[in-house]
Amino acid sequence: MIRDIVLPAALLAVAQVTFCQPEDTGAKDPVVTAIPVAMYGRWGLVPNDCDPTRDDAKGLMEVSVAALTFYESRGLLEEIEEASPTRLDASFAFSGEGMTWQRHMVLELDEDEGTLTRSETDPDAGPLELVYSRCE
Q1: Is the pLDDT of residue 55 over 80?
Q2: By the 8 A CB rule, do 116 and 40 touch?
Q3: Among 35, 40, 45, 81, which Cα is nearest to 62's?
Q4: How many CB atoms lie within 10 A of CB 23?
Q5: Is-contact 94 73, C-beta < 8 A?
Q6: What is the tens place of the pLDDT at every residue in 65-121?
Q7: Distance from C-alpha of 89 to C-alpha of 117, rounded to nearest angstrom
């Protein structure tokens, strides 16, 4: 009698534990390969940088999928160290005016997505923190 009740109950318990375990698919967290979407667009250090009729917008930064474009240079995304929807810690390969250079920077978007802070700590550039406003 015990064999008729205990054995089936034990087998049922083992089957439930086996079927309730999550399946290991071997999938890893997705690899981020682009600048966060919320950062895309045109950003200015001063209001005149956002005026599309001006050709002297030296404080304008345009952010796209894998590039930062400035007045006389362009930085292509190379390596992402850390990323979230509102923060990017990455390295960029820059070129402009016949020169090339590397920069490591952090882009951080504020809560209302209207301000983007760009920070650099590269030894060649020194510490730098610039606050941009989203262009309308």
Answers
A1: yes
A2: no
A3: 40
A4: 5
A5: yes
A6: 999 999 999 999 999 999 999 999 999 999 999 999 999 999 999 999 999 999 998
A7: 12
Alpha-carbon distance 64 to 67, whole Å? Answer: 5
| pTM for this entry | 0.74
Residue 125's pLDDT is what?
Answer: 67
pLDDT computed for residue 70 by the predictor = 96
Cα 12 from Cα 26, distance rounded (Å): 28
Measured distance CA(70)–CA(111) in Å, rounded? 24
DSSP secondary structure string, the chain?
Answer: -HHHHHHHHHHHHHHHHHHHSPP---PPPPPP-S--GGG-EEEESSGGGG-TT-S--TTEEEE-SSEEE-SS-EEEEEEEEEEETTEEEEEEEEEETTEEEEEEEEEEE-TTSSEEEEEE--TTT--EEEEEEE--
Amino acid at the residue 55: D
